[in-house]
Known about the structure:
Blueprint: H1 2-25, E1 46-55, E2 60-62, E3 68-73, E4 80-81, E5 86-90, H2 93-132, H3 141-181, E6 183-185, E7 190-195, E8 202-203, E9 213-216, E10 221-228, E11 241-245, E12 252-266, E13 281-288, E14 301-307
Antiparallel strand pairs: 1-10, 1-14, 2-9, 3-5, 3-8, 4-7, 5-6, 7-9, 10-13, 11-12, 11-14, 12-13
Amino acid sequence: MQIKYTLPILAAAGFLFASYTVVSSNQPMPVAQAVAEPASAPFKTFIAGSGIIEAKSQNIAVGTPLSRIVTSVAVKVGDKVKAGAPLFYLDDRDTVAELMIKRADLAKAQADVSIAKASLSDSKSLNGLAEAVTDRRAISAEELLKRRNALAIAKARLDSALAFVQQAEANLANTQTTLDRLIIRAPVDSVVLQINVRPGEFAQAGALNTALLVLGNLDQLHVRVDIDENDAWRFDRRSKAVAYLRGNRNFKADLELAYVEPYVIPKKSLTGDSTERVDMRVLQALYSFNRDQLPVYVGQQMDVFIEAQDDSSGETQQIRPDAGGSSS
Length: 328
């Protein structure tokens, strides 16, 4: 009797559980609160875009002219360096050995010059004695010709020896230059922003995806703003501009235009917004600001708003700051 009612009860319970699961899963998910409210433009009409902070000197990606093993790194992140200060050293043992050989070659070439000068002096003396004989019967024409030829040969040998000295000096200077190039130095007064090389690692010459070392002059920071090419005609160099710190709109700074790069390029700093086009091209404007107003770091992004005039139709256009200047 109990088995007769067990199966219907289990079936009903399963149906009720399935119904509860379907109903509960269809409930709308609550919208998550934003961690930080986005910044809003202080202008009636404006152009907005993403800005990225960089050093006044731009971010200098330091490379190496020669591919070698790194023996030591002379700086650390945050160090202030003067122009010409060593940053890191490359393995120079073979170059030092070659330098010693070149110095020996120069010493031998200089010794050959001394020998050639002595030989020339001897030839001059013998030829002078022969030329001083007034009675040509005392010396044969053949002997006189030999002494004249010996003098000419001695002069040629001295010229050759001097040429070898110049060649040895050039080879020595070339090796010395190579040795100096194995010490990677700071090109300008700057601050070490990033180090991606360590002793024992192989430093590859040429263009790299990751710079061996990054420098920048932090005395003044710039904000590089990407302006959509569709909004470039609305951009006015004399317009006011304001930057907000991404993540906290309470931090803002008035911007002053430093310069505009008059060359429209493909956008590299993509935000991932759904309205952002992959073929977007941008005009880049660089602004300066008072660094004391914002707790910022090089490479940090900012929301930038640039005041713009109304378009020809008189309608107000609002542009999403996170889409690099695309109209909403």
